Amino acid sequence: MSTDPDCLFCKIVAGDIPADIVHSDDRTIAFRDINPQAPVHVLVVPRAHVVDAGTVVPGDAEDLAAMVMAAKTVADAEGIGGEDRGYRLAFNVGPDSGNSVAHLHLHLLGGRSFVWPPG
Ligand code: AMP
Ligand code: ZN
After folding, report:
1. Is residue 60's pLDDT more than 90?
2. 35, 51, 96: which to mutate for ligand 1, most atoms within 8 A of CB?
3. Stretch 72-91: mean pLDDT, rounded?
4. What's 22-50 look like in SS3?
5. Considering the domain boundaries, does residue 62 fall inside one?
6. Which of 42, 87, 107, 115 has the maximal Cβ count within 10 Å?
7. How confident is the model at residue 82 (pLDDT cuts 50, 70, 90)?
8. What CATH number is attached to the domain comprising 56?
């Protein structure tokens, strides 16, 4: 499994930097965003270092599937899953998106309504 010793989220995966971890499995961890944009704002990341959704390769497919499954598990645990609620999953890629951390992360946002199109 590839890791980057200089990567913030690799350090969180390794336990070298603290985070409020809400889910962990063999391929992913999920932790609360330090600057939440919604009542529920969790980042799901692969344990392996992957830069972003714009650089994924076929070999990352199982990690990507595990990330979506982890997001569903967290959403259900947070009470925002199911037919009468809802949430947003987002990958930011590149400067125009505002991406700031170069380790793949899936934003899980919920607990309020969101507008579409996004800002
Ligand atoms: P992005 O803008 O898509 O790259 O998202 C990066 C996210 O990481 C932002 O929402 C930040 O608030 C969040 N973040 C940065 N540092 C930490 C940290 N140490 N723990 C939790 N979330 C963080
Ligand atoms: Zn990393």
Report:
1. yes
2. 35
3. 96
4. EEECCCEEEEECCCCCCCEEEEEEECCCC
5. yes
6. 42
7. confident
8. 3.30.428.10
Q: Is residue 116 assigned to a domain? A: no
pLDDT category of residue 37 using cuts at 50, 70 and 90: very high
Ligand 1 within 6 A of CB of 33 = yes
Residue 1 CA to ligand 1 center (angstroms) comes to 22
Question: What letter would DSSP give residue 85?
Answer: -
**CA–CA distance, 13 with 33 (Å, rounded to integer):** 14
Q: Which of 41, 49, 103, 105 is catalytic?
A: 105
Q: Please work out whether the CB of residue 119 comes within 6 Å of at least one atom of ligand 1.
A: no
Cut 0.90: pTM above it: yes
Q: What are phi and psi of 108, to 5 degrees?
A: -110, 115
The boundaries of the domain holding residue 47 are: 8-110
- Segment 58-71 mean pLDDT: 98
